[in-house]
Amino acid sequence: MLSSRTLANAEILKPTPRAPRVCIRRGHHGVGVVLAFVLCFAIPTRADLVSGHVYGPNGELLPNRSFTIQETKGQFNTDASGNFTVSLDPGHYTVRPTNDDSLEGSITSYSQPVQQDIHLGKR
């Protein structure tokens, strides 16, 4: 039989609520790490501007002309002074006059704006 003293102690020692359980399923704990890794490398490199002048094979400026970037099939034009500005992802590109495959030049784009002239020569 329980004494009154034991009952008093029993009331004092009431059970405390359990802390919530954290359940980690096996095989899923690396998903967050893999996702973070993929996102770091999935961010595309930033395209930036390349600007300058376009010169012909004899060193003459080529104003008011259209040019094709071979790797992207994109086009850009020079203004009346032979200036151009084009936005490209970082890389090396081949440039040709749109209606003349006999001439070719190249430009290199970086992840920051760059001033660069294009000197066309015979292919």
In short:
The chain is an alpha+beta fold and 123 residues long. 17% of the residues lie in helices and 34% in strands. Strand 5 (91-97) and strand 6 (103-109) form a beta hairpin.
Can you describe what's shown?
By secondary structure, this protein is α+β, with helices and mostly antiparallel strands. It has a domain at 50-122: Immunoglobulin-like. The chain has two helices and nine strands; from the N terminus they run ααβββββββββ. It has helices spanning 4-12, 31-42; strands spanning 48-55, 66-69, 74-77, 83-88, 91-97, 103-109, 114-115, 118-119, 121-122. A five-stranded antiparallel beta sheet has the order 3-2-5-6-9, with no helix packed on it. Strands 1, 4, 7 and 8 form a four-stranded mixed beta sheet that branches. The radius of gyration is 34 Å and the shape is elongated.
Q: Indicate the percent of residues in helices.
A: 10-25%
Euclidean distance between termini CA atoms: 108 Å
Whole-number mean pLDDT: 80
> Nearest-angstrom radius of gyration?
34 Å
Structural class by helix and strand composition: alpha+beta
Shape: elongated
Low-confidence stretches: none
The helix/strand order is HHEEEEEEEEE
Considering the chains and any ligands shown, give keywords for the structure.
single chain; 123 residues; alpha+beta; Immunoglobulin-like; 5-stranded antiparallel beta sheet; 4-stranded mixed beta sheet
